[in-house]
Write a structure and sequence with these properties.
CATH architecture of the largest domain: 3-Layer(aba) Sandwich
Distance between the termini: 50 Å
Bound molecules: ligand MGD, iron/sulfur cluster, molybdenum atom
Helix content: 25-40%
Keywords: Iron, Iron-sulfur, Metal-binding
Number of helices: 18
Protein name: Molybdopterin oxidoreductase domain-containing protein
Number of strands: 28
Pfam family, one: Molybdopterin
GO molecular function: iron-sulfur cluster binding; metal ion binding; oxidoreductase activity
Strand content: 15-25%
Number of domains: 3
Largest sheet: 6 strands, mixed
């Protein structure tokens, strides 16, 4: 085994921490800039996971070799285009991509879009050409951080630790941990962030604090963008966004002559027009001139692979059909191969997901027996991250983390690279590069940060507000991450959280319905939740019964919050 004994946290999280083995204990690396010796509760839970004991076919234990035989026989029997390769983000190491290489060569249908950051990512790309965060030092060197639709101190606790002494402004319908630490909390109505961005732009102009040099030299379309902000009287925004003009004034007092950063999260873009909404926020930031400065900028979930060449690329002549991940119909495939995902909990419209899985031959390639494995015909156990050499890039900052294999793979488990290699050999496809070559590439390649050339402002905004369909009985649906879970993994909280003004009481059993489905929940009251909002932690086993399995406007991605829900007392749980 390798003497370096480094381990990258494989979990889907901005921080991408680096751990190492010190005196037989796993500790956060001191030298790794963002990790700074600390790990988190989810990493501790990951170490205690209950891994699969054995491969299974029709619920019977079989050997690993038999499981690979069953899979390849099935694949040989099938029309490749009637198989689906579905990959989640259970492990964010680069080596995960090996399996996709096989299924691409084989001819499977693949997915496009994302269950996560797709809409917002596209919005940034449309404005700046690529989705790249500025170097983290620019965040550290800023004075004021505007946290917009992101639970910064919980979902990227290490990035937060580097800047925790700054002045914060939070824009979020929920009184999150970071909202409580902020000088200003704008408790915005859901899906009105583009309106607030337009309003703030209008104010910036009125106060003459737009960045004229940036607008003239590095951008296109600023006048068009500014024109949109003039379409409405300023006071009309108060009622729709729920943000008072007094707070807007305070916002400008706080940022005046300061170096400003925007740290934007998923919350703003879980809607049909997620890309447009994000682009409005990025346009506001550009108008204020936060881009291209010595300090400050806009951070989102960056494309961590930007600047790297995909080491698992297949020949360009191979073309696969792609379906939108948000609206996959599992039943339309003869075989579905699921890797590192738990769509029964994490994908939208749970009822449709389960019905679909029941009507297909389902292969689950996962480390643990998750909710989706209940519907699997074949389970192939993936080896633990501790036994797989890998490299982890981050979508939050520019530091990478290295993973050495520090233990032997458990019996009857297989790594992604190994599984792909076995299948590629069985089918006579083009072999992967060697593991060493791939790992060396990702370990040694350095990517220099490059500023975008020209910023293109959004010049037309067409967003259908949810508040148009709001009445006195329905609620906005909000989901966000929990400190104690990582998406559907670890400690799961299945409650619905409501404000006291909802009229419900603690522990009430309620039936919640939307036009996509219904489910029962137990109520917890919390004054942190904005009235008229119903809050659920991501990973809640029932919440996605309520969410739309439809794609957003432009990015083929999920839009979990493009829905209003009805809540009634129920006699059953
Ligand atoms: N502890 C922990 N950390 C995690 C994860 C985890 O599960 N647990 N998951 C990881 C993953 S996969 C991701 S993608 C990231 C995501 O991390 P974040 O970007 O922080 O995403 P969320 O927690 O989904 O939502 C962020 C915030 O948006 C708010 N919000 C909801 N709707 C709106 C709206 O309309 N407008 C505004 N302004 N705000 C809104 C929510 O209240 C919430 O506070 O976190 C990663 N880190
Ligand atoms: N309503 C609602 N739904 C959401 C969200 C939300 O905010 N609200 N968040 C969305 C977001 S941001 C995301 S990223 C998705 C996440 O959705 P998924 O990508 O499906 O992630 P998880 O549900 O955490 O399931 C990951 C699974 O990967 C498996 N796994 C872990 N490590 C490995 C490994 O090394 N190899 C293999 N082969 N398998 C492994 C584990 O068994 C685990 O169950 O969920 C989305 N769903
Ligand atoms: S903060 Fe994120 S990357 Fe760091 S150990 Fe925890 S889950 Fe892993
Ligand atoms: Mo995510």
């Amino acid at each position: 085994m390798n003497s370096n004994k480094k381990v990258a946290c494989p979990l889907d999280c901005y921080d991408a921490c680096q751990a190492e083995i010190i005196d037989e204990n796993i500790k956060g690396s001191k030298e790794h800039f963002t990790t700074n010796s600390k790990l988190c509760v989810n990493f501790a839970q990951l170490l205690k996971e209950d891994y699969h004991q054995s491969p299974k076919f029709n619920n019977e234990d079989i050997s690993l070799e038999e499981s690979l035989e069953v899979l390849s026989a099935k694949l040989k029997d099938n029309d490749a285009s009637k198989t689906l390769f579905y990959e989640g983000s259970g492990n964010l190491g680069k080596m995960q991509a090996a399996v996709k290489n096989f299924f691409t060569q084989y001819g499977s249908t693949l997915t496009k879009g994302s269950l996560c950051d797709g809409g917002g990512g596209l919005g940034i790309e449309q404005g700046r050409g690529s989705i790249v965060n500025p170097p983290i030092q620019k965040l550290i060197d800023s004075d004021v951080i505007v946290v917009w639709g992101r639970n910064f101190s919980v979902t990227s606790s290490h990035m937060y630790n580097l800047v925790k002494d700054k002045t914060f402004i939070t824009i979020d319908p929920i009184k999150t941990d970071i909202a409580k630490k902020s000088d200003i909390h704008m408790q915005i109505n859901p899906k009105t962030d583009y309106e607030l961005a337009l309003l703030l732009t209008r104010f910036a102009n009125m106060q003459d604090i737009e960045d004229e040099e940036f607008l003239e030299e590095h951008s296109e379309g600023a006048e068009w963008f500014f024109d949109i902000t003039r379409n409405r009287p300023v006071v009309s925004y108060e009622a729709t966004t729920g943000v008072s003009l007094a707070l807007v004034n305070q916002f400008f007092e706080l940022i005046e002559n300061k170096k400003v950063s925007f740290v934007v999260g998923l919350g703003v873009q879980k809607y049909f027009e997620g890309a447009q909404i994000m682009r409005c926020i990025d346009s506001l930031a550009a108008y204020l001139g936060v881009h291209k400065k010595q300090a400050g900028g806009v951070w989102y979930l960056s494309n961590s692979s930007h600047g790297y060449e995909n080491q698992f690329k297949v020949k360009s002549s191979i073309k696969n059909k792609k379906v939108s991940v948000a609206q996959v119909d599992f039943s339309s495939y003869d075989l579905v191969f699921i890797q590192g995902a738990n769509p029964v909990v994490s994908a939208p419209n749970t009822k449709a997901v389960i019905e679909g899985l029941k009507n297909s031959f389902v292969v689950c390639f996962t480390t643990t027996y998750n909710d989706t494995c209940e519907y699997a015909d074949l389970i192939i156990p993936a080896s633990s991250f501790l036994s797989k050499a890998d490299v982890r890039l981050s979508y939050g900052h520019e530091y990478k983390a290295i993973s050495n294999a520090i233990e032997n793979p458990k019996e009857n488990t297989i790594s992604e690279y190994k599984l792909a290699s076995v299948l590629i050999e069985k089918f006579g496809f083009e072999a992967l590069k060697s593991e060493e070559e791939i790992l060396d590439y990702y370990t040694n390649k350095t990517v220099e940060y490059e500023e975008f050339e020209t910023f293109e402002f959004i010049e037309e905004v067409d967003v259908e507000p949810l508040y148009k369909h709001k009445n006195s009985t329905n609620f906005y649906l909000i989901t966000a991450k929990s400190k104690n879970s990582l998406n559907s993994q670890f400690t799961i909280d299945n409650h619905v959280y409501l404000n006291e003004s909802s009229g419900f009481k603690n522990n009430d059993a309620v039936k919640i319905s939307s036009s996509f489905g219904e489910a029962n929940f137990t109520v917890k009251l919390s004054e942190d939740i904005k009235s008229e909002c119903a809050f659920f932690y991501a990973g809640n086993k029932k919440v996605n019964y309520l969410t739309p399995n439809k794609e957003d406007e432009e990015s083929f991605s999920a839009m979990f919050q493009e829905v209003l829900i009805e809540i009634e007392l129920s006699s059953t749980l």
